[in-house]
Amino acid sequence: MFRKEHMKKIVLLNTLFTPLIGFAQLQTVFKQKVDSIYDKNKDAVGIIVHVEAPKHNISWSYAKGVADTSTNQALEDQQPVLIASNTKPYVAAAILRLVEKGELYIDQPIANLLSKKTRHLFESDGYNPAVITIKNLLSHTSGIQDYVDEAYFEFVNQHPKYKWKKDEQIKRSIDIGNPQPVGEKFSYADINYLLLTEIIEQKTQQPFYAAIRNLLRYKELNLTKTWFINVEQYPENTLPLAHQYASKYNWDSYAIDPSWDLYGGGGIAATAKEAALFFQYVFDGKIIQDKQLLEAMHTYALPPDKSKYCLGIYHFDMGFNAYYHGGWWGTDVIYSPESDATITVFTLQKGFQHVINPFIGKEFQKLLIAESAIK
User: Fold this and answer.
1) Is residue 240 in some structural domain?
2) Which of 139, 181, 268, 367 falls 20 to 30 Å from 229 in CA-CA distance?
3) CA-based torsion, 320, 292, 304, 197: positive or negative
């Protein structure tokens, strides 16, 4: 009798502690990989990584490097950054929530969804908003010229404190480009997402940032360190933004007014942890609950040989099935349905993300998928 009870206790203890031992081993491997990569790429300034893997009981953040090159202040893993174009999945998810609520539909033409002023501007330049749909905006197949080009970067370079208005950026798109065929070609453009935030405002009668916060259930999901920079209050109990750098332009993010990348194409600041949690919540059905809509979000809008972009998200084969988005400053988020896990990698020096971020994301996801197969 004693022996049977004793054996039961041993089995129970092994069951309880095995996941913890596995987590400790993975954590050590993760840390060693980040340290090794950073030691070879110290010009990257800083790296923040977060791994969110509910099936493995892992929610792990780590930082290496400095948050500010002028002071060499150590980078902390809960410091937020500007996530730039990683804002687009948030805008897309908010639009899909309005579809889920029956207030929009994906193939709906945008003509009657824009403000009269914006619609007239596009019509006067030869665009036909009656044939451009929400899906075209979401998938960057609208044929609308973007306002972002090298001249735009040069202007920001010369006038770093200039406060851009959304209407100016819309007008710039119209001034520098001509209408292209709708629905035929992928052409990545922030203007598409500016128009989507305008549609959100027109439909909800709220500022886009407030509507997105409500639609995406920030409060319910405890996303307390995710916000639109400068138009929402800086969250309480949140560390200072880490500095982000672009050596090509000699930029420090602190020296540039965020309005250059604010109104939906970019604009969100978040921690690596909350950026990962957002992806995790989206693909686990905690934000968009309609399974068909969620599937549409990661279904190719064009044949995959023409575009890997879906509705606010890329769908790549990275040696595993990957739903991904990146941001201009060097912010990448990768979700794998095979491991039901999300990896966020923030690199503080633009340019290094192409070397560092995909490698970390792939290596970590492979480890998690291998662990999933064992279990």
Assistant:
1) yes
2) 139
3) negative
